Amino acid sequence: MEFKLIKGDPLKLKSNVLVIGKFEEESISKTVKKVNEALKGTISQLIEEESYKSVIGKTLNVNTVGKTGSDRILLVGLGKKSEFSPNSLKKVGIAVAKKVKKFASKVIFNLDIEGSNLNSQNLIMGLILGTYEFNKYKSNNDDSSSTTDTKYNFIWSKLNQKDFDNSLQKATGIAEATCFTRDLVNEPPDTMTPTRLGELAKEIADENGLECEIFNNVDIRQKGMGGLYAVSKGSLEDPRFIHLTYKPKKKARKTVAIVGKGITFDSGGLCLKPADYMKTMKMDMGGSAVVLGVMKVISLLKPSVKVHALISASENMTGGGAYKPDDVVTALNGKTIEVVNTDAEGRIVLSDALSYAVNLGVEEIVDLATLTGACIVALGNYTAGVMGNNQLIINKILKAANTVGEKVWQLPMDEELRKDIDSDIADVKNVGSRYGGAITAAMFLENFVDDTPWAHIDIAGPTFIEKGGEFYPKGATGFGVQTILQYLLER
Ligand code: BES
Ligand code: MN
Ligand code: ZN
Fold first, then answer.
1. pTM of the predicted model, to two decimals?
2. Domains of the chain (ranges, CATH numbers)
3. What angle do CA 207, 212, 216 make, to 5 degrees?
4. Ligand 1: which of 372, 458, 466 to mutate, judged by most atoms within 8 Å of the beta carbon?
5. Among 343, 375, 381, 465, which residue has the most ligand 1 atoms within 8 Å of its CB, making it the best to mutate?
6. Which of 112, 187, 252, 293 can bridge 181 by disulfide, Cβ–Cβ 3.0-4.6 Å?
């Protein structure tokens, strides 16, 4: 893919596709009008006939039969003008890329929208995100299925080359980080093991000048990470605890920890999942993939906070050494956990990572985890849940998510539910009742953060969407990368 700022007459410039845009409330913009005249009214006629509504990303594809420099015109909906934000252009980019990626080698955008830095950045991000496919295991890459290497040219009013270059660099960084996260989650669990996550973390650290510490199962046991150790025991794969540190050049304004659940396959353990629920459980390392995606671009985006990236990586399997219901395990902070259900393993491995963050003395903790099916029941596949012990940090997450256009919704902590995870023999048990499962999971985690301001993002729904979505590819979405980057940049 290539992205260039250009000038010229959109009607005369040669391309496969000229993309023009229309807001819902607007009859027709400057360029649309010109194109419509050149095509003798075809566009307005089609808008009429197909009762085309310019909802965001909806396209109308017209063959110009040689009447303009472009072979085709793609009219794309920009949504309601009153609801327009740079995010709208990310969606537009995704929608357009999905339409043209199979055939167009050159595409020109002339949307008649002000070419701000953010507008340009989001459109380019959308184009990269919309082009994404996970096809490395397909041996039959014939023409109909493969993607064209498209050159995108942009006509932007009021955008100079320097600002364009800047927006291009950011867009590429953030979008590639998101696609990297998608790749990690889509990768089959036989290759994306805890060991592999550790290797990738090391590579990212080396590329970005980050500090890197990685613990294996012996270290994990010695250090007292009893939760991660217990969960890993049923697997032949060695667990990893991963710690990367980013330090800003200037004095850090704050120190934060981002923590990811890295269960590279969740069979449920001895409380085995039924086959239908086990399918897709390679995605249970989605939180850790977000953390690694963020660290991959952190030295490009240079937030002014110090960031500790922490990952508990393990399989959850049924081997002879597997941890059992009735076991009591001791987390790094000394709290004891009664295991009621081995399938609630995420919160157990996170107990050590959160305790570890507290020991580092960080000022804020944000964790991301594909933690509960209950959160999907509550919010569906497209929205993550956020909970925590501090409304200010929850608000920061909500604001960051809103800025980048990822849907996050707060669920309440509920004191009346806390007794659900009271244990008769240990400090806490790992499962409550079926009801309010996303909340009791968060309240379990709260035992391991002390008083550190903390937000927990349950990304079980949006991490992996089997059938895809209008603005998501099939499978892994990379959800969370952009929210966390935005959160770090706003600090
Ligand atoms: N990894 C799952 C949660 C999950 C489910 C993520 C579906 C994505 C899609 C987690 O480890 C789990 O198994 N949770 C159990 C908890 C239960 C045993 C209390 C669940 O949600 O069913
Ligand atoms: Mn589980
Ligand atoms: Zn899990």
1. 0.97
2. 2-159 (3.40.220.10), 187-489 (3.40.630.10)
3. 125
4. 372
5. 343
6. 293
Q: Which of 6-15, 51-60, 287-296 has the lowest mean pLDDT?
A: 51-60
Judged against a pLDDT cut of 70, whether residue 144 lies above it is answered with no
Q: What pairs with residue 386 in β-bridges?
A: 410, 457
Mode of pairing for the β-strands spanning 306-316 and 255-266: parallel
Burial 348-387 (b: 16+ CB within 10 A, else e): bbbbbbbbbbbebebbbbbbbbbbbbbbbebbebbbbbbb
Annotated active-site residue 429? The verdict is: no
Residues near ion ligand 3 (CB < 5 Å) are: 263, 266, 284, 346
Q: How many angstroms separate the Cα of 93 from the Cα of each of 77, 89, 147, 303, 473?
A: 11, 6, 16, 26, 13
| Set 273, 335, 474, 491: catalytic member | 273
Q: How far does the centroid of ligand 3 lie from the alpha carbon of residue 174, in Å?
A: 27
> Taking the CB of residue 199, how many other CB atoms lie within 10 A of it?
13
Strand pairing partners for 385?
A: 409, 458
- At 430-461, the pLDDT tens digits run 999 999 999 999 999 999 999 999 999 999 99
| CB distance 437 to ligand 1 below 6 Å | yes
304, burial (CB in 10 Å: exposed 0-12, middle 13-18, buried 19+): middle
491 is catalytic: no
